[in-house]
Design brief:
The chain has a single domain (about 5-135), classed as Roll (at5g01610, DUF538 DOMAIN). Strands 1, 2, 3, 4, 5, 6, 7 and 8 form an 8-stranded antiparallel beta sheet that branches. It is about 10% helix and about 45% strand. The chain is globular. About 25% of the residues are buried. The longest helix has 7 residues, at about 30-35. By secondary structure, it is mainly beta. Keywords: Signal. It holds the Pfam family DUF538. It comes from Salix viminalis.
Length: about 140
């Protein structure tokens, strides 16, 4: 199984987050709108984020789900999101991520960084792996 097949989920998940998911009561933007403001497709987070924290000074970002979430594509890949996803966000970069992992063959690997370069997303898994995904939808 290629890494490209594994991370196609991020392009598939993007349409699952509908415009109604972007609505946030009050004056604060939603977590999905925050991602878009840093030039990321909203599909990087699963549907159902209940809240978030953002320190604009440091870029420290946390997104909260009601519980862990698993997304799988039969015969291809499985992604798991913990109830809290943390990292540091800046324009075109999510780093020091925790709370997102992908199953490759028989192993669970943490996704630790995502970099956007125009229409390409580069995902770093662990310390030495990376993948480029072209044609980023939604952003």
């Amino acid at each position: 199984m290629s890494f490209a097949a594994v991370f196609t989920i991020f392009l598939i998940v993007s349409p699952l987050v509908t415009s109604s998911s972007l609505t946030f009561t009050g004056n604060l933007p939603s977590a999905y709108e925050i991602l878009a403001g840093y030039n990321f497709p909203i599909g990087i987070l699963p549907k159902g984020v209940t809240g978030y924290k953002l320190d604009k000074t440091t870029g420290e970002f946390s997104a909260f789900l009601n519980g862990s979430c698993s997304i799988s594509e039969e015969g291809s890949y499985q992604l798991e999101y913990k109830s809290t996803i943390r990292g540091y966000i800046s324009d075109n970069r999510l780093e020091s991520l925790s709370g997102v992992s992908v199953k490759v063959l028989f192993f669970w690997l943490n996704i630790v960084e995502v970099i956007r370069n125009e229409d390409e997303l580069v995902f770093s898994v662990g310390v030495a792996s990376s993948l480029s995904v072209h044609s980023v939808a939604g952003g």
